[in-house]
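[[Per-residue structure]]
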Amino acid sequence: MHICIEMVGQKDIVLPIHYNHVIQGFIYSMIDRELSGFLHNKGYGDGRKFKLFCFSNIIGKSRIDGESGSIVFK
């Protein structure tokens, strides 16, 4: 399954450079509490556990603010 998240704002959108945990937390907060607990704490599989999250880079007009360690999207 692929989920495309589109963020639109009246102001710049500022995310930390390592934003994957922010997006993962957002997804967990939007799904059923029991399912999110299972996915976060247990995952699927008998030996190696699969947590089911894989991220691509965010695409858009942006600049890196090295001083604050963030990406600013226009």
Remarks:
- The chain has a mean pLDDT of 85.
